[in-house]
Amino acid sequence: MGFMLLEVAGFCKRFGRITALKDVGFHVEAGEVLGLIGPNGAGKSTLFECLAGVLPADSGAVRAGGAVLDERARRPLLFYVPDGIAPWPQQPVRWALDYTIGFLGGRGDLRVEVIEQLALEALLPQTIGTLSKGQRKRVLLAIGLLTAQPALLIDEPFDGLDLRQAREIAAALRTHAARGRTLFLSIHQIGDAARLCDRFVLLSGGRVCGEGTVAQLAALAKRPDGDLEEVFLALT
Questions:
Q1: How far does CA 67 lie from the centroid of its chain?
Q2: Which backbone phi and psi does 131 adopt, to 5 degrees?
Q3: DSSP E strands: which ranges in 105-226?
Q4: Which of 180, 175, 166, 110 is nearest to 143 (CA)?
Q5: Extended beta strands in 51-198, E state
Q6: Spatial contact of 43 and 37, defined as CB atoms under 8 Å apart
Q7: Residue 118: closest CA among 153, 85, 150, 143
Q8: Which of 3, 76, 120, 223 is deepest in the core (most CB within 10 A)?
Q9: How big is the CA angle at 68 (ends 5 and 32), to the nearest 5 degrees?
Q10: What's the whole-model pTM score?
Q11: Strand-pair partners of 210
């Protein structure tokens, strides 16, 4: 982990009478694996969509190096990998990876490594629309890892994966983070988050209930010996 990559302050988002995000603030450190954890409906996907510029926030700011970044200025910094989509469903996996490298200016030097890490060799000729949920997830992760942006926002990186696949992909993500890639992961399963992430942002009801390492959150919750699950329940 290194310097502060970006700071989020005062993010708010409403959908009619529903408040999805309320004065959300936290920071992201360069080279860390930051976990965004919370129950279904906590606002995790909405937060990622606002950060990525997919949705406009009603208020709030993203800052890097003291400067406020609008949606356009965030694009060279952040790449968003959403959950549950099938991009380019009529195209083969090979085409999607090559498109990411060629048109999106991705990392061609990582192509062979990422294919091996995510066990995609057998899937390269298959069209994305024919893949299973877990296979699509691995392809989406590969697209994200091949992009050039220094920070990835990944929504539910383990959804659709079995235990072995989840552990293998967690190891791959740690490898990329160790080289300086910043990973901000929205994770529903607290056990997965505890094994992978360096720090955490706890989100409940659209509000940040805590931010920090497990030890820092345990101190905040006055549960010095508590694990992440106990701390999360105490703070939310």
A1: 23
A2: -80, 155
A3: 151-155, 182-187, 199-204, 207-212
A4: 110
A5: 59-64, 67-68, 78-81, 151-155, 182-187
A6: no
A7: 143
A8: 120
A9: 10
A10: 0.95
A11: 202
